[in-house]
Amino acid sequence: MVDLTIVARLVIEGEEPEVRKLVQQAVTEGVTPDKVLSEGLIAGMNVVGERMKKHEMFIPEVIRSAKAMNAAMDFLKPLLETEEVNLGPKLVLGTVKGDLHDIGKNLVGMMLKGAGFQVVDLGIGVPAERFVQAVVEQEATVLGMSALLTTTMPEMGNTIEALKAAGIREKVRVIIGGAPVSSEYANKIGADGYARDAARAVDKMRGLIQ
Amino acid sequence: MYGVVPLKGRVIEVLSRDEILQIHQAALEVLKDTGVKIQHEEALDIFKRAGAEVEQTKQIAHIPSQLVEFAINHAPRFITVCGRNPKYDLKSGTGAVHFTSGHGATFVIDFDTGERRPATKKDLENVVRLHDALEHTHLIYPEIYPQDVPTQALDRRISQALLCNTEKPVVATAYDGKAARDFLRMATAIAGGEEALRRRPMFTVSIGVISPLLFERDRVDVLLEICRSGHPFQVYNIPSAGGTSPATVAGTLVMTVAELLAGLVLTQLVRPGVPVRLMAYPSIIDQKYGCFTFACPEKVLMAGAMAQMFRYYGLPHAVHGATTRANVLDAQAGYETGIFDMFTALSGSEWIIEGTSSALEDTVLSVYEQAVIGNEICDMVYRILRGIEVNPETLAVDVIREIGPGGEFLTHPHTFEHFKLENWDAKLSNRMARDEWVESGAPDIGAKARDEVKRILATHHPKPLDADVQRKLQQIVEEAEG
User: Fold this and answer.
1) CA distances from B410 to A56, A63, A148, B29, B33 (A)
2) B60 and B290 Cβ atoms separated by less than 8 Å
3) Taking the CA of residue B41 as centre, how many other CA atoms within 13 Å lie in the half-sphere pointing to its CB?
């Protein structure tokens, strides 16, 4: 019988082939996919997130862990879907219009997937109307926006205004991040939260949807 | 890896080949014409028998260049000093740069109260234990001279504290011939016999030449005792430009070289082949404040020049690195120690004295936190010395092609494979963004170093000496205290 704590440890160590192998084996042995997900993969990524916050893990190591998790998810996801298991809260993510910076945003996406979120990544240079459209179509509960430039920051406020105009502002929690952004700025433009790094983004989103 | 060869052997040279030869010739001229004063009849006789012209009443020995040549030819090219733990053994002649603790503080900032007070034996023990834990302290000097123990056996007390609180190699100071014999007894007790001590020389004894050109009687006694035993020895000097040596940097270099070579000649006449390390501390008098200081750019220029002179002679050596005139842990303490460690390391000296020292106030005041900061400086210096790895894998043309314009390298396996070796890992220096730093209590470098000192002193305990060896050391100290 596969020990799911070993799966968690291998996620922390970023050992992609071993994680995949053990996850497949666990499912073959009859462990339910959602149990493998929560007690193996997410449990491992939770530790990664904590260590990242304390700077006990380096970013490339965190990424390796997230890659190991995502590879195992590719295998698990169809099984979870057929069993109609709750796939977790859905988040629409993107870098705002005029801004092409996506390294930090991608890291946020990886960590959120690792934490059990469904992430719909719209990519870079996303205009307000596309964010609104995606929130509606995906029935997302959270919208995450990123900006690196002080010149593109105002697009975050514009998107929030567009959500209001579409009448869906109350349906979605909005969280923002990026180098020039702060919690004060989040308050100013009427966002629900701000996180300064990917690990804290996970904490913040978990807090927001409770 | 212990120590790093600077930039794959490319070091900063402050002197041209011609200038090295000019300084060498000038030093030979000083040794022959002016000579050195030796307040020791037996040593004068040794010089006389070897062919030096001796002015008996003035106690001056005029040392001819043949004797200098003889000494340079007989002194070993390499020296090894051993720690109690063999993993800390230090070899010279590898081209690697090493850092040592500081030497001689008589005051401390009390770690608990913050008060400036005379240093105690407990402070010495704490600082030695701190250096035992610090990665980049490779050799430990008596960084503190305690003021709360009887002066007649201070040197034995210091050695006892060194030997009991570190497994790394140590350097002792002996005030007279009897102290030198006591040190050999201590080292023999720890090594487990004379033969064992010969195989693994536990510590170096060091004496200073008094500038200008004076060998004081008790110090010569120490030299004779230690060199006759064949134990590794160190001769150092501290000429100060404009005070005890010429105001010119070049003239002070001539003095530095002449004095150390005179010491070397005596060691090799006493016992040809005895391992000796020469240590140069030349510095200046600040003519505005009328004080001696190590914290000056001329000092590191001279350190770089002396490293070149020693390489020219092919002799084991040490020069002076980080020191600061700052009275508190401030930016001056940071820039002076940082610049001096960096420059002396780039000049390729084998051993850099004071590299990780806890001392401020030009070595007078020990502040524990400064040792931890010094260790961080040396850590950064070593990264610079390691230089740049250039090969097809690190040139990464394939990775650049794969990622292409507009992509990112953060998530590529090449980054995971290389970042740890390429990137310096800041252990103490701030890398937090402001809001996280504020949340963590907004610590400055002093506060962070303080936490690290606390951690080390609470958790780090070098292997104790066997109880009977400790008793033996205590007995030697008590005999000397009478």
Assistant:
1) 18, 8, 17, 62, 67
2) no
3) 1
DSSP 3-state of A80:
helix
Q: Which amino acid is at A53?
A: K
Quick check: B1 pLDDT over 60? Answer: no
Owner of token pair 């005999």: B479
Sign of CA dihedral B109, B111, B117, B122: negative
Tell me the per-residue pLDDT of B247-275, one tens digit each, with 9 for 90 and over. Answer: 999 999 999 999 999 999 999 999 999 99
Whether residue B435 and residue A60 make contact (CB cut-off 8 A), yes or no, is: no
Q: What is the pLDDT of residue B435?
A: 86
**Chain A positions with Cβ closer than 8 Å to B:** 14, 58-61, 63-64, 67, 100, 102-103, 106-107, 182, 196
The CB density around residue A150, as the number of other CB atoms within 10 Å, is: 11
Side chain identity at A45, as an amino acid letter? M
CA-based nearest distance B321→chain A, Å: 32
Q: Considering only alpha carbons, which residue of chain A is nearest residue B425? A: A58
pLDDT-derived band at B219, boundaries 50, 70, 90: very high
Q: Write the DSSP string, A7-26.
A: HHHHHHHT-HHHHHHHHHHH
Chain A residues whose beta carbon lies within 8 Å of the beta carbon of residue B406: 100
Contact A102 B408 (CB under 8 A): yes
**Contact B408/A106, CB-based, under 8 Å?**
yes
Three-class secondary structure of residue A166 per DSSP? coil
Nearest by CB to residue A63, choosing from B411, B420, B433, is B411
Check A196 against B433: CB less than 8 A apart: yes
What's the confidence (pLDDT) of residue B9?
Answer: 85
Q: Strand (E) positions, A13-156? A: 90-95, 118-121, 142-146
How far, in Å, CA of B321 to CA of B100, rounded? 9
Is residue B409 within 8 angstroms of chain A, CB to CB?
A: no
CA atoms within 13 A on the CB side of A128: 16
Q: What are phi and psi of B214, to 5 degrees?
A: -125, 125
Place of tokens 């090219």: B77
Gap between the Cα atoms of B421 and A205, Å rounded: 35
Residues in A closer than 8 angstroms to B419, CB to CB, are 58, 60
d(CA B358, CA B142): 11
B126-162 residue pLDDT tens? 999 999 999 999 999 999 999 999 888 999 999 999 9
Confidence of residue A82 (pLDDT cuts 50, 70, 90): confident
CA distance B403 to chain A (A): 13
Test the A interface: residue of B409, B410, B428 with most A CBs within 10 Å: B410
> In whole angstroms, what is the distance from residue B375 CA to residue B381 CA?
10
